[in-house]
Amino acid sequence: MSDRIYNFSAGPAVLPEEVLKQTQKDLWNLAGSGVGLIEHSHRGKAFTKVIEEAEADCREIAGISSKYKVLFLQGGASLQFAMVPMNLLGKHATADYILTGTWSKKAVEEAKMFGNAHVAASSKPTNFDRIPAAGDIHYSARPAYVHFTSNNTIFGTQWKSEPDVPPGAPLICDASSDIFSRPIDVSKYALIYAGAQKNLGPSGAVLVIIRDDMLKSVRDDIPTMLRYSTHAENNSLYNTPNTFGIYVMGQSFKWIRQIGGLKAMAERNEAKAKIIYDCIDNSDFFKGTAQPDSRSLMNICFRAPSEALEEKFISEAKAAGFDGLKGHRSVGGMRASTYNALPPEACAKLVEFMKQFEMANR
Fold first, then answer.
1. Which of 45, 94, 294, 338 has its CA 20 to 30 A from that of 155?
2. Residues designated catalytic
């Protein structure tokens, strides 16, 4: 009998059991070296193999060409909010941001410290319940780059495809909460970054995929550790990196490959989300908060008829073996995060509980 429950947390989030079990072994003794994973030198042969395999597997599953550098950095996505404009936005240049939630709003505020930040579109007037329509996006004359957040963890919305940008404008994406949950055409992007703690690994680590030509634009009047070029030139080993985070990310890449790659992962995630959305749509008790055409496959936000019933739902769900279902205070209600590693059976079991709760509380 398993001593684990169903983890619907928005992050740090569920990881594949296979990854956790392999990590347990390697924490004690990495690959038969007699030394545990987090005890190894980042410049030793054992860890060199770890980081090289992690990069190779990352490139394979996402089809990342040699025109891009794959970096394993620290500080999570929140540091990237500052690093992107610090590196790529001149004092008199303008970057365009599409606001679809709390994290894109934070990214804009950081950008204003280094140059001009133009809000090309925003779904704030409707409490971020949708992705802006193409006709509602108004770019500046010559944006240094266009930034968007592909999935909005708090509000449960997700871009179905990349926004169309002005010719020549570099596209930058915060993909923290849906990275590698579906196929991605990396060639459309100048830079992609993602905190690891939702689909890839532990908190504190961040994956950055940056096109080579963007490295030529990096400013040299910023701290060495905050330059993308520093980490690209040193293969993410300029300083002692988060060796544990890189290892777990590497194991997650291997797991995705074993699942069948990003196409198979997308099919798995679509099926999981459909189980819960169908329950919401067929209920007059529960109600989704995101507009149907903007719904996320990663974060499913929904409400009950009253806050009292929502509190009861969360409490009873926890007692029944479902954790992490409390919605963010910005939205309220409940949120079921169905990231890559969440097993399909978790969604089916949650729906069983939802139906029982609805019948008992009408």
1. 94
2. 103, 174, 198
